[in-house]
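note to self — DONT lose this again. spent like an hour looking for the file last time. sequence + predicted structure for the chain T wanted, 337 res
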Amino acid sequence: MIAVQAIFASLIIASSLVMKEQKIYEADDKMISLISDNYNLLQALGSFGISLGFGDKTVKETCENNGVDTHTFLSVVNYSINDIEVPDDDKQISVSTLLHYLDASHAYYIDFQLPYIRRELEESLNDRNSLAQIIMKLYDEYACEIRHHMNYEQQTLFPYVKTLLEGKPASDYNVDTFSKHHDAVDQLLHELKILIIKYLPQDGLHNNQLTATLHDIYENEVWLRQHAMIEDHIFVPAIRRLEHHVKHGEVTRNISKMVSKGKIQPSETLSEREKEVIIALVQGMANKEIAEHLCISVNTVITHRRNIARKLQIHSPAGLTIYAIINGLVDINAVKL
């Protein structure tokens, strides 16, 4: 039993060492070279929507022929193989390509991989044995958790990202809400593996069947962990950038509406001090911070704010932000939306 655990540990360590030694792949490399070096990328190809039969085409040629963004494909591949981090400010990442990849990966895992492992377990275990029944129950609980986890993303996160891609901001949801609830679902799988290792039967046929199944479970655990890391380290930062871009677009549209309706001219001229107060407000300062910044009292700040609201007929921070941008008091890129 200890020997079996040692074998699996050695396989995982050896696999990790091999992966670390792989080269960083580029657009001009042959796609067949990627697959020959890393056969585990075969499933990723399908999730990206890349069909086999690409001959000796390069990564770029293959991606372009299949409507896949090359930079995004290589970012995922190099991150998966060599842990090459993708900068949070990488504006070349295609959110639509990532969305398709993750959506297809979910379908692969839920519709194919989970049922496949379950069939392997059924064939390997004696269903009349009480421990075998416990193993099957644990697996079904694990599969249920995974489905629930992925269905949440399918029904909540992915539709939200699609609305962002259409340029429509949402006020009741953001990617940070998703990140707070994006926990790993692996405790049940860990317990399952321990039970299987301890349960290995004596006869050769069932021992081989269960060993092969256990190997597939280990492989799937690695895949699932990588999948979660791609979401956390590539997808989530890309969505944050998209959220920021869409919010800037919304501000620009609001500004255009105000300009067209002639609502940005004050009824009375603002003093220089009042303009300074507006700038400080737009930068997110509280009354006390503004007082310290301008070397005036808090009561004076409050008086200025009342006068500003009366003159501009603008009472919200968003309205003041738009006014400040339109009249050149602040630059839109310096505003925290």
